[in-house]
Amino acid sequence: MGRRRGRRWAAVLGAGALVVAGGGLLAGPAQAMATASVAVDFPTHCIPPAIAGIPPIDGTTSAEITVDNAAPKVGDTVTVTYTVVEAAASNPVDLALPADIMTPTGKVFVAGAQSGDITVAGPKKNEPVPGKGAFPSFSMSGTFTVTAPGEITLSPGDYNIHTGYIMELDTPCTVTDPPAPVSQTIIASGGGQVDERSIRLGAASGKAGDPVTVTGTGFTAGAPVTLAGRAGDARTGDTATAEADGSGSFSGQLTVNDPATTGIVAYEGAAWDPDKGAGPQPYTVTQGGGETPDGSQRLTSSVQAGTLSMTQAGDSVALSAVDFGQGGASRGALNTVIVKDFRGGPAGWSLTGKVTDFTGPGGAAIGASALGWDPVCETKSGSPSTCAAGSKGTVGGAGATLASTPDGTLTGGEFTVDARLALDVPAFTAPGAYTGVLTLTLT
């Protein structure tokens, strides 16, 4: 059934820990920060293509849901990534499949403070697959708008593995006993005004020239609605119109001809306005896009998206000693952190930190709120994003932002993050070494 064991992807995009010691002494090993996202296993029913001549496969899928913002406000848009770590099905044919011919699509189930499902789609990107070999891990992404405060749970849903090599084949896999276990929980707080408009697609992928059904709710009653293809923030040549009924709902069809189309939106008015529209919902063109003229050769290249990661120059910091009876600032410098955002998408990142209490001899302690920092962030030349340093002030047990970059049309780059540290030691603190753990988390 194509199970591949021992392989798990990290749920948090990056996390590290520093041991900070006062009085010039080094402390023990680094500690990691826990994350709410977990990999889950669930029974799955997969139907191989008829050409394979094999019966349906009942197996186990291992998957994980992650988000770009685990504490959004009402009205925020959250990007959700559904990673199938181990698929229940395998390559159904004896023919080996080359790299970059798999196009996955799927659904994520939403429950709790709000309910529904999220359409997710992945890029045409995969490692080579041997004949009858296990499908490699793959990821799919989509977005949803937070409409209610409270706990929102996300669970893996049905998914489809489309392969386009010699022939177009689909292997749909459904959750046998839905819903699957919860993989990610987010906590939403109250926010601003919510755009109630939303759309759903009848399919998340198709060949160039195929129509896709677009249904919407929450639009202005009787308003004309434009359906359009998008490639990032740019509009493609795909467009159609529909009209909302008396309840603000509509159903229309958009024929997707442009291979560049990666998403579909619907909006009121003459031009795309996120305040008067919904989407983009991800859509992948799996095949087509025109014939190569006689005497010509079609050249195709690709830029592969990477990951968001961080490295730090060390895991221990020795702060300067202070005198008993005088106290004052015990100073030092954060080990330099290098953040590399090679995802090539629209999402920015945030690097935060929080610290434990500093424990000393005989149970003596200095509270976490006594540690402050003054962050600095530098952007490498040529980076699409520009990082902003967090505010000077207290780190504490609740945490603070060390550095961040905003969302944008195209984000990414390399960034160097530093900070001056100062622990405010009371005058008559018992002599000895005091140790706390500063944990950094990149999301």
Automatic annotation (TrEMBL):
Annotated keywords: Signal
Signal peptide residue numbers: 1-32
Bias type Low complexity, positions: 237-246
Region: Disordered, residue numbers: 230-255, 271-300
Gene3D superfamilies: Neocarzinostatin-like
Protein name per Swiss-Prot or TrEMBL: Beta-xylosidase
Organism, as annotated: Streptomyces castrisilvae
